[in-house]
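for ur thesis appendix - HNH endonuclease. copy paste whatever u need, i formatted it the way the template wanted (i think)
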Amino acid sequence: MLMKIIESEESPPPDDPGGRGAAAADWTAMDGWAGSDERAGTDDWVDVQVLADYDLQRWADIEHDEPADPDAIPVPPDRFATERAAHIDAIIDTERRLAAAHHDRAVAIAAAQEFTERAVLPGIPITGAQWDGYEVAMRSLRAEVACALRIPEVSAGRILLESSMLVNRLPQTFAALGDGTISYKHARTVVEEIRALPDEALEDFEAAVLPRAARTTPVRFRAVARQVRERKHPWSIEKRREICLSDRSARFRPRHDGMAMLEFYQSADWAGAAYARITDLAISMQGSDETRTLTQLRSDVASELLLRGVTAEGLGTGIVATVHVTVPVFTLMGHDDEPAMLDGYGPIDAETARRLAGTATSWLRILTHPETGAVLSVGQNPEQVPADLKRFLQIRDGTCRFMGCGRPARLSEIDHTLDRQFGGQMTHDNLSHLCKMHHLLKHQTGWQLVQVKDGVLAWTAPTGHVYYTDPATPIQTPAIDTDTPPPF
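the 3d part is after this line
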């Protein structure tokens, strides 16, 4: 590789190409200029390896002061290079073994899928919607893979699909993953880019992209694979767009420090038009008195449109969102700054919590003990007063109680852990929230559920493995206080 020297006002002497003395030169690595290039013959381009060797020798010649750290002992250049090479070799070897481990995991997962498909068991008939035998078997497998790997079921479903594709449809990619030539990120990119690519085009696609995967970062490889896919795809882009439209979605992704991402996956024309609109509105708000950047204005404009705007069909008029905020009582009174908990997100700062509580037109008050975190009281919702037990369960569970499921409790169903027909009682220690899918999973497959203690649930898979889920808010049965007004 070649490196450009951009000299400062005080240039280094000819015998000091590194400029490590009085003059400091800025060194800029020029990506893509290695090897043959017309610039290579100019005086201001030097070989990086020559500089590296020079710097190591010059560093070794410096009379070092006694290091403050007794372990910081200067290493001769030849030993330095040898030991550094050994460390790099260890990193490379570990990465190859990691890729091989992903290869072996794909083999195991694909084998589990194949076995499950062969050993399909009939579903247990229930009233209403039910799954056929194949649906029962595959949903149960996906659920247990999610539990075993401690990941959401959506992620488990993706891994199941990726494993099946690698083992059964992408032999070249699968082999490269097994010998460590490419990473799992590269292999995943190949899987993603063959979506809607017919089987007869797969071999040529793999042969064209894999040589680049072996020497390209995953991000750059994705761009390369996308370009190759466009060249080799036998279908028109209109047909592919029609297929991909079924994947459009919106997702909420919590981030750190009270922030979050709201993502939309939509057709390019709609997404582009929406982005152009918020950009135009953001630009119109700029001025000498506006301190926000254009990026910040875009975000604020989009938020205002979603929260206060009305769609072309008039949808959204008159609908008021309900937000649950769990606030420590001392925080609410202004005596403490302990973070509150925003339902569906996590910790938020005390000032935001007090603002939400103070301006809410209707709210569900949840006061917690400042030391133990236990719920002290649950207020009433003035618009729709639910049963005290239901409110308690929503607070305790937070989401569907299957491992890894993020479906909010308010959108889930309340399930009797022990069915009423078998003597199950309508008590807090026999009730929990399950989303529609996991409610069906419990009743139609071999999964068994028991409540252990303090809201902890134990799920036993058909294989006999046991998985535990903890409540969102570890609490005891709260005292219901309906008379005391909010402390603000």
